[in-house]
Amino acid sequence: MLYLYSLDKNTKNIKKMNKKKSPQLKPYSVDVEKGKKYAWCSCGLSLKQPYCDGSHSSTEFKPIVFTVKASETIYLCGCKHTKKSPFCDGSHKFL
Questions:
Q1: Integer Cα distance of 36 and 52 in angstroms
Q2: Cis (ω within 30 of 0) for the bond into 63?
Q3: Distance CA 95, CA 88 (A)
Q4: 27 or 18: which leads in pLDDT
């Protein structure tokens, strides 16, 4: 899990929050090649969205590795809340 911290200005206590980062609230349209492996970022911290760059190392999140069966355009989740990882299922419409 990704742990974000915020300071409560009134009590000066640190609150621990457990939350994924949503880099964008729409899918990533990407062209993929048949037989190639891809690693989709599931934490939202990668600077190479929608792909993993290892930024999850301080979290409990792991990339979703997948191989595509055809060269085509696919739509990968950008909000990181899909129920069909790594593909967009429209979850961003409800965030």
A1: 15
A2: no
A3: 13
A4: 27
